[in-house]
UniProtKB/TrEMBL annotation:
<feature type="domain" description="ABC transporter">
    <location>
        <begin position="5"/>
        <end position="234"/>
    </location>
</feature>
<dbReference type="InterPro" id="IPR050763">
    <property type="entry name" value="ABC_transporter_ATP-binding"/>
</dbReference>
<keyword id="KW-0067">ATP-binding</keyword>
<dbReference type="InterPro" id="IPR017871">
    <property type="entry name" value="ABC_transporter-like_CS"/>
</dbReference>
<dbReference type="Pfam" id="PF00005">
    <property type="entry name" value="ABC_tran"/>
</dbReference>
<dbReference type="InterPro" id="IPR003439">
    <property type="entry name" value="ABC_transporter-like_ATP-bd"/>
</dbReference>
<protein>
    <submittedName>
        <fullName>ABC transporter ATP-binding protein</fullName>
    </submittedName>
</protein>
<dbReference type="GO" id="GO:0005524">
    <property type="term" value="F:ATP binding"/>
</dbReference>
<dbReference type="InterPro" id="IPR027417">
    <property type="entry name" value="P-loop_NTPase"/>
</dbReference>
<keyword id="KW-0813">Transport</keyword>
<dbReference type="InterPro" id="IPR003593">
    <property type="entry name" value="AAA+_ATPase"/>
</dbReference>
<keyword id="KW-0547">Nucleotide-binding</keyword>
Length: 310
């Protein structure tokens, strides 16, 4: 991996005494989509703010494309596009003017063709002469993305980009993210839509209480920690699991009308065949069965709970 962002020993303690980040180490590869997941207050936005030069770190070192974020601020900030959570666009400017102005802030020459392309990609072309204050929340979010891309950054931070955005626009947004990645842009995103991170991200990082507790390739994480669940809908409800079934980790669900069995799909023997045989031997009938693979959200919740309990 060719890292475009290197983070080493990064910590941030605010004047209030709150430690938002605790010695974070992370490298993000050039041209990858990296999803940063964590509960509210975990430190995601602080981490993004430091890399983007908005928040000053207490300790540690960050380089962006080989430049230190403090001594090489101009180079690093010019390489980054940021879509923050908060909508901060000037309410009285038109869509075209505010996106064009953002490009000029970075010393880039006028490029009407690029601005037109961005607005069309984000379904904003018909609104190009509309003032920001007249747009819906979802439309304003699109404008923020266009502004972040106006100076052709090599790195794009998307901090909860789908917040307040309808399903159709969200799909279009992620199609654009894929196109940007194909063009070599590095994408770092935070999202509450964990299924999107599962679908989109090459790697996932999980942050909790300011600590990066896991960084893993998405598919490898799913294979390593993902479980499958077998649900058996019983012909007759149970009040308790018989002791004869103790060797299988079973749970009663749905007021005793279903048995849940979690198993490792990659194991040589899943135990399903022997479980069904034992149920038959015991005269326990079932009307239906279904399997479900655990999602990235299941894994995320499990990891955060484990970290809290540690």
């Amino acid at each position: 991996m060719d890292p475009i962002i290197r983070i080493a020993g990064l910590s941030k303690t605010y004047d209030s005494g709150h430690q938002a980040l605790k010695s974070v180490d992370l490298e993000i590869g050039r041209g990858e989509i990296f999803a940063l997941l964590g509960p509210n207050g975990a430190g995601k936005t602080t981490l993004i703010g430091i890399v983007c030069g908005i928040v000053r770190p207490t300790e540690g070192k960050v380089t962006v494309d080989g430049h230190d974020i403090i001594s090489g601020f101009r180079q690093t900030r010019g390489a980054i596009g940021l879509v923050p959570q908060e909508l901060t666009t000037d309410a009285f400017e038109t869509v075209w003017d505010t996106v064009s102005f953002s490009r000029g802030l970075f010393g880039k020459p006028r490029n009407p063709a690029l601005i037109e392309s961005l607005l069309k990609q984000l379904s904003l072309w018909d609104k190009r002469a509309t003032k920001i204050k007249e747009l819906s929340g979802g439309m304003k979010r699109r404008v923020m993305i266009a502004k972040a891309l106006s100076h052709e950054p090599r790195i794009l931070f998307l901090d909860e980009p789908s917040a307040g955005v309808d399903v159709e626009l969200r799909r279009g947004m992620w199609d654009m993210v894929r196109q940007l990645r194909d063009q070599g842009v590095t994408i770092i995103l935070t999202t509450h839509y964990i299924e999107e991170a599962q679908e989109m991200a090459d790697r996932v990082g999980v942050i909790s209480h300011g600590e990066l507790i896991l960084v893993e390739e998405t598919q490898a994480l799913m294979a390593k920690l993902g479980k499958r669940e077998l649900t058996l809908k019983l012909a007759e409800p149970m009040t308790a699991i018989p002791p004869e079934l103790a060797e299988w980790p079973l749970e009663l669900r749905d007021d005793g009308n279903a048995l849940l069995y979690a198993f490792d799909a990659n194991a040589e023997r899943t135990g399903i065949a022997s479980l069904i045989k034992r149920l038959t031997d015991l005269g326990i009938g079932f009307k239906d069965l279904a399997t479900r693979e655990s999602s990235l959200e299941d894994i995320f919740v499990s990891l955060v709970h484990q970290e809290k309990a540690a």
